[in-house]
């Protein structure tokens, strides 16, 4: 879809050894960007994933382990990358419980990984972008950054916070060749979601198609999952010259969820 206009740029993508993060990394690499993959593990297969990405797209790809729950580690990830023209804050976790029953440690972990990590990586990346004279901050928020659901207090609070952080970053860089935007996906067909489908079928006594339409995609009017490739292409678009005046805002990829 996109030519290799990002050659010479380096993209750091947090939480990118699977799912949305990996999909974004693949599309950025296809557009010519060197990429830094990240997660909290440090397995041979993590590094092999980077090697596979590099071979497939003719770019440099590295895997750097960093715990996104720790601010110092978030900043060290960007510093270890050595260069960060494109920062994609994607790392996130989830927990579902009513507010009185929500474990405090789960709240703290979700806020740290889903929100605070983006503050720390952005703080480390902006000086590099300013030195380079160009930059893109892309935060993977959620439809839950614009609306809410019960039993997801920490996740919704964090994603609303990501949207707010995106606006502030966009305003602070508005007079520079740097933009900051948030992509707000609805339900995305990732390996994690795919793995949940059989259990959900059993729980509700439904077939696959029925459980997807009536349970998983209940709030998604299109009744279709977004794909990791579509989110990756949205990220690539935000890196293009066509998006140079798009900053401090959100782009929904949610099949109409937030139009309701």
Automatic annotation (TrEMBL):
A GO BP entry: monocarboxylic acid metabolic process
Any one GO molecular function term: 3-hydroxybutyrate dehydrogenase activity
SUPFAM superfamilies reported for this sequence: NAD(P)-binding Rossmann-fold domains
InterPro entries assigned to the protein according to its UniProt record, in alphabetical order: 3-OHbutyrate_DH (IPR011294), NAD(P)-bd_dom_sf (IPR036291), Sc_DH/Rdtase_CS (IPR020904), SDR (IPR050259), SDR_fam (IPR002347)
Name of protein: 3-hydroxybutyrate dehydrogenase
Superkingdom field: Bacteria
Organism: Paracoccus tibetensis
Pfam annotation, one family: adh_short_C2
Family membership noted in the UniProt record: Belongs to the short-chain dehydrogenases/reductases (SDR) family.
């Amino acid at each position: 879809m996109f030519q290799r206009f990002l050659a010479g740029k380096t993209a750091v993508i947090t939480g990118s050894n699977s799912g949305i993060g990996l999909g974004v990394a693949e599309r950025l690499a296809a557009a010519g960007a060197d990429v830094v993959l990240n997660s909290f593990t440090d397995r041979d297969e993590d590094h092999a994933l980077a090697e596979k990405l590099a071979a497939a797209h003719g770019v440099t790809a590295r895997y750097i382990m960093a715990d996104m729950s720790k601010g110092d580690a978030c900043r060290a990830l960007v510093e270890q990358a050595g260069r960060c023209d494109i920062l994609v804050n994607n790392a996130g976790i989830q927990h579902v419980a009513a507010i009185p029953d929500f474990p405090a440690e789960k709240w703290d972990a979700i806020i740290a990984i889903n929100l605070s990590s983006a503050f720390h990586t952005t703080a480390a990346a902006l000086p590099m972008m300013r030195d380079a004279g160009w930059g893109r901050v892309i935060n993977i928020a959620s439809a839950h950054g614009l609306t809410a659901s019960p039993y997801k207090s920490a996740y919704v609070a964090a994603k609303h916070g990501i949207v707010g952080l995106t606006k502030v970053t966009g305003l602070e860089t508005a007079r520079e060749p740097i933009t900051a935007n948030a992509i707000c996906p609805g339900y995305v067909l990732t390996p994690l979601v795919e793995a949940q489908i059989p259990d959900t079928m059993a729980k509700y006594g439904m077939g696959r198609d029925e459980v997807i339409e009536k349970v998983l995609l209940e709030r998604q009017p299109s009744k279709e999952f977004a794909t990791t490739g579509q989110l990756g292409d949205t990220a690539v678009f935000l890196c293009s010259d066509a998006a140079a005046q798009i900053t401090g805002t959100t782009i929904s990829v949610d099949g109409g969820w937030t139009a309701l």
